[in-house]
Amino acid sequence: MNILLKESRQQKNVIVLRLLLLNFSLFIAVLTYAFLKMGLPVKAFCCLNAIFFLYVFVYAFFYRQRKDSPWIGFIPIVGHFIVTLMLMYFIPAVSNFFSSMYLIVLAAVFMRKEILYIGLLLSALADILFIYSSKVTSLPLTQQVTIGVSMWSIMMALALLFIIYNDKKLMGRVFALQKETIKKAEQINHLATTDSLTSLPNRISSCEYLEAALLRMYAIKGQLGVIVLDVDHFQVINDSLGHSIGDQCLEGFAKQLIDKLPKRIYISRLGGDEFSFVIENYKDHEDLMMLVHSIWEAAQTPIAVAGVSIQLKVNMGIAIYPEHGYLVEMLLMNANVAMQRARSNGKNSYLLFDGQMKLELLEKRKLEEDMKEAFANEDFDLHYQQQVHVPSGSVKGYEALLRWEHPCGTFIPPSDWIPLAEETGHIVAIGDWVLRKACLTAKRWHDDARNAFTMSVNISALQLMQPDFADRVLAIVAETGLNPCLLILELTETLLIQSMETSKNQLNQIRERGVRIALDDFGKGFSSLSYIKQLPIDIVKIDKSFLDHIEHSLVDRAVVESIISLVQRIDMEVVAEGVEDQEQLRILQEIGCHYVQGYYYSRPQPEHIAFPGNAFVS
């Protein structure tokens, strides 16, 4: 094999030498012809160029075998280049020699004999055509521009074709590079249009799909439904369990949707805990709502993450093309408005958009801005309602109730803006402010009256779900100097039961420091006495609804009596809320209720009125 390769190289060398001799002979003939026709300067340039040209050819041929530094041939190559340019000024047709020189330089730089072959061959061809054209035309050499330019173009084009044809590796690299470029472009496009966590289409891709779907529906006069889904209080999962668990939860939630929903529903993740769905060309309203309900049902399935079963609560809003809008942005916005309304109505539900929702949303946004401004300007205030020990008639303590007087002079009911504060997350900062102010008031009253008045403060769901809730409460108590035993935190029955697993440790930490926990509005929620023993509580507050008809309803009286008897038996205190008249008070005294709160004794009042300066109620 080596012998055959050696013989092949020797044959190629012979061919190259013959081409070299032919080309050099023709080149000398052309220069001689020009030498006889032209003046002395051209003659000198022709002689000098012949020397440089011969050196370049010989150097380029032997360069690959000698493996010398390419700088050895740099000077003659430059010399040949400069002299050829000078000759081109006098004889434009000599540009063909410049072309052959260019090919030889390529041969030297890239160490490719194939380029040298084509350079020698085309130079010889150019010389023959040059001599032939000189015989058939009467034009002087200085006017034969076309020949030189044509030969330059022909030689360069053929040289490139020859290189590409013979260099399969080069072609492979070109196509590999093109393939790699296309692959990278596809990867970039995938990253730009796909959510990295769930592998669902992202907002960009969703908007593009929705825009194309709207065009399809316009063409066939069909209908289209857009659904926006938001996971309720997902931030709490991130804060309490960590962002890693939160990401796994979203990933499992997305997979659950993909597996359970029909293929005709387009699913995408808009960002965070927000998803969107597109349903094209449904039959009728009933068909659309059936598909929407299937999305809601799929979202209700618990997700197993890190050994923990998590059931997400979702809110969804629906907008319809063309009824609720013709544009992508309009449909998404209206679906989002309906979703927010569903969240305000009680969470874990879905609603179809209507025009009234948008007006209500604008009013809601205005109220939110006013609320933020009121908090910044300290326009909020606390009113205090007395809690009375019935047998003695003495004030046992107070419940701090938040009030907001609008700059226009009217009081805004808490039911109008407390849910908004919880929804927007402002309730956490407001709750800290209420707790701090209530503790300061209780400390001041205790120091002034030398009496152990308790202070009850309501805690919202969002506050309790904060991972540092216990630390914040204890820090405020220490900051204000209030005895922890005088502070009572009131939480609703529903809140305590739903968050018992995640908040039980925090509540026990607070109780260990002396702060007591009250179960507020007992009877409104699950209304099961079996829960009382499981909850970390010290006080039970009976909801006002049980007292509204206690004078006339034997059932209500029996229920209240049972609650009081059971709670006192397990060494807890009972407070009856909403006592408004003498008859209600009398019945509560008969069945053994020791603590009451309501309008019969006192309405919620500002600080300077609520504290009478003594411990008894007249």
TrEMBL record:
GO terms for molecular function: cyclic-guanylate-specific phosphodiesterase activity. This is Uncharacterized protein. It comes from Paenibacillus baekrokdamisoli.
